[in-house]
């Protein structure tokens, strides 16, 4: 009998090889989930597309290594019993004159594995689907940069509209410009000017996908000592984005090498990626940059594996999954959302949604050591892989749950939340955390004890009401935690029996 390879929801694993102009990557996903769960992710830089502009052929030096790497990836995916398992080849393979010969060689080494050569439009479609995986209502322009091409996709409130592919991948742009950044800038402007529908993508967000763009984000994170070393949904204002691009273009390789954690294999590509970004920002007058880790591979997963759950909300889905895996009750969270609602009468739709997510996550530390429960929960939520939480949402949720487990606000590990949240957001997170802490003290984590109690805010007085017969759950700890909630809300408190 083979190994148990079932994943989330009892479904088996799936795998995709992304064979690009710069690198090849194998990702193995676990089960079917609204938030793709990679359990294996390995990349090898091959630079198959180097010299393609001049020769029209794949890099001859890279082809033998590509065959070795693909055979290894095939063995890994087969060993994990991944199904479906597919190879997606992009710009270099589809444009090279020896592309068919290369694919024939691959087929002999990966028997039975589908090898698809994506058109530029198909590549763009997968990339946009990947972005929508984490940001279902994305509105603006997706730019997916590879080694050989740049895919552009217009999104309008989560719908894919126009798409095109341009020969502006970092390797090809370097080749076309003969290593001259000024010439590269002119080439980018010329190619972008021919995309007429970009006139309709003005003053909106720019969603950046692809390893070369991710490298820019990593450099900026290191350079600014940003408090969260996560590229996914890292956001920059337009002025900051322009300054970052100009800095990378002019910095020089030696200066970039000094940054901690910089992907060194991307240093040669960085000025070209920054040039493309700078000209895109100028062409579209973008209102902000959003870096996305989810792209072609996640788009393939959502289309070919997880289509049945694609319409689910990604934030709600991950919160419910974590509650099922780590919490003690799957019915209490909705009751907690109702119970805490009176504390925040003026919250908007986004804040209401985030409070609901916090309620679903409110017991994920139940099995951690009590001395480390607050810190462990804080780090678990702050550093979650993937998912559709902005960095501010991560900071809010992690702070809320640390307070729910009794964190002292002076502890050093809360520093990311202090830096990422403004004063109002920080205060709301603390208040919600105190409310959840009170709720679990009152209820012991059971709906039966929470029923018959409610909170009421009126004339700056916070009242905790107990129905007749519920006084058994009152006590000193309840009074103390009610007072802490009142302090967080700047209200006086009282307990009332009815």
Characterise the protein shown here.
It is a single chain. The chain is α/β, with parallel strands linked by helices and 498 residues long. The chain folds into three domains: 110 residues, ATPase, nucleotide binding domain (Nucleotidyltransferase, domain 5, 2-Layer Sandwich), CATH 3.30.420.40; 178 residues, Exopolyphosphatase. Domain 2 (Nucleotidyltransferase, domain 5), CATH 3.30.420; 184 residues, Hypothetical protein af1432 (Orthogonal Bundle), CATH 1.10.3210. Helices cover 47% and strands 16% of the residues. It is built from 21 helices and 14 strands. It has a six-stranded mixed beta sheet. It has a five-stranded mixed beta sheet with strand order 3-2-1-4-5, sandwiched between helices. Strands 12-13-14 form a three-stranded mixed beta sheet, covered by helices on one side. A hairpin with a 2-residue loop joins strand 12 and strand 13. Helix 2 runs parallel beside helix 4, helix 8 crosses helix 11 and helix 19 runs antiparallel to helix 21. It is elongated. The relative contact order is 0.09. The N terminus is likely disordered.
What is the CATH homologous superfamily assignment of the largest domain?
Hypothetical protein af1432
How many strand units? 14
Give the biggest beta sheet: 6 strands, mixed
In DSSP terms (H or I, runs of 4 or more residues), the helix count works out at: 21
Mean of residue pLDDT values? 93
Strand order of the largest sheet: 8-7-6-9-11-10
CATH class of the largest domain: Mainly Alpha
Q: Tell me the domain tally.
A: 3
- The assigned CATH architecture of the largest domain is Orthogonal Bundle
| CATH fold-type name of the largest domain | Hypothetical protein af1432
Nearest-angstrom radius of gyration? Answer: 26 Å
Q: Estimate what percentage of residues fall within beta strands.
A: 15-25%
Write down the overall geometry: elongated
